[in-house]
Design goal:
- Helices cover 44% and strands 20% of the residues.
- The N and C termini lie far apart (93 Å).
Length: 400
């Protein structure tokens, strides 16, 4: 008998689906949160120790264990128990020190790994599951979505698979996928699923538009952070907010009901797995999470609570345009006017009529400074025209 403990997201459940295809009734699958896994593992190992029963196989996928369970897994393996932990998060790489640890972040060809892809390959290599085209396609969709490679490659079906996962219960999704992978030569969605997925896409777009109006900005431990409360579509919300506000180092998405924080970034220079690890969490460099502890609650909820949401850049402008030779005007909630204009040396900033000392090499660098330090947005045309008229009046007054 096998016991599989996995994560409760698409990648983790993908492992459970493959296990049920491989082992049928000979596997018990349980899905866990990041914080719930260790309790599950500890109970299993304690029962095995109490009963002196070590013949069952323990599989852990898409999650890692704390140090105490790391030592207990060693004891279980030394007593004859079959253990395999398969993960793809770099915070778990130290578990490769053990014979039962199999942690791989990236393949030799540069593709990022997922738990589902690693588990599938492990089962194939050990003769525990036959390869099939449908299974190959399903596993690749899960991998593409979990690593976010689907967006760059334009594989919309990967995102739609995740959308379907969240639209039904885990049990229903698992049952559908197991049956489909056993019975079909190709993996695809049926006609009804395609229709409801189209509706879901529209719903997600509306949800993201609302969250763009709710995000606040602050500095936390030297990072410029966007904070938003959201209980659904964390990957989509994080990615779209990151693209809408690229001056932010990362996006923190608060799920108060689940008592957790998801961290997302679009920047290569920011590693949110390190940030999450500092708060007792972990994950990938661009997608991680941590529990909503007292310290996290203070930093991400209590202290930013009085802040007003960010305003988006004006998007119908004709005159006040970025990188304009006439300069570009920004505003903020303090009613500051920040005028960004070109000079022979680069780009300068005028704050409420006073030119600042620093010169920036590029427009993007100057705009990033304005947005990070003044929480400013691109002003509308009417404000820009009024600003220029005031500038002209001042020049006339000076020249007499």
């Amino acid at each position: 008998m096998y016991h599989l403990y996995s994560h409760n997201d698409l990648d983790g459940v993908g492992c459970g689906i493959i296990a049920k295809v491989a082992f049928g009734e000979q596997v018990e699958v349980r899905y866990n949160s990041v914080t719930g896994l260790d309790m599950q593992v500890e109970r299993f190992l304690q029962r095995a120790k109490d009963k002196g029963k070590y013949q069952d196989g323990l599989l852990i996928t898409d999650l890692s264990v704390h140090q105490g369970n790391e030592e207990r897994l060693n004891e279980y393996a030394e007593a004859g128990g079959k253990v395999k932990l398969i993960d793809h998060h770099k915070t778990a790489l130290h578990l490769n020190e053990h014979p039962w640890g199999m942690v791989k972040v990236q393949y030799e060809d540069g593709r990022l790994a997922s738990a589902t892809s690693l588990f599938y390959e492990y089962l194939i290599d050990n003769g525990l599951i036959p390869k099939s085209r449908a299974m190959d396609q399903f596993v690749e969709l899960v991998r593409q979505y979990d690593t976010w490679e689907w967006e760059q490659a334009g594989v919309l079906q990967a995102k739609r698979l995740n959308d379907l996962f969240f639209m039904v219960s885990i049990d229903e999704f698992e049952e559908k996928m197991v049956r489909r992978l056993k019975e079909s030569d190709e993996f695809s969605f049926d006609e009804f699923e395609e229709k409801i997925l189209d509706m879901e896409e529209e719903k997600i777009e509306r949800y993201i538009r609302r969250k763009k109006r709710e995000i606040v900005q602050t500095f936390i431990n030297a990072h410029c952070v966007g904070i938003v409360h959201a209980e659904a579509y964390h990957s989509e919300v994080g990615n779209e907010l990151g693209k809408a506000y690229p001056h932010l180092d990362y996006i923190a998405i608060l799920n108060m009901g689940g008592k957790k924080v998801s961290l997302r970034t679009i920047h290569d220079e920011t590693d949110v797995s390190e940030i999450a690890a500092s708060f007792g969490g972990g994950g990938h460099a661009k997608a991680s999470g941590c529990p909503l502890t007292d310290d996290v609650f203070r930093l991400y909820v209590t202290e930013p609570f009085p802040l007003e949401p960010l305003k988006a850049d004006a998007f119908k402008n004709i005159y006040n345009l970025k990188e304009s030779e006439y300069g570009t005007l920004y505003a903020n909630r303090e009613e500051d006017q920040l005028y960004l204009f070109p000079t022979d040396q680069g780009w300068n900033i005028q704050l409420n009529g006073v030119t600042q000392n620093e010169t920036f090499a590029s427009f993007e660098e100057a705009e990033r400074f304005i947005k990070r330090n003044h929480a400013a947005w691109l002003a509308r045309d009417e404000a820009f025209v009024q600003f220029l008229m005031q500038q002209v009046k001042q020049i006339k007054h000076i020249t007499g």
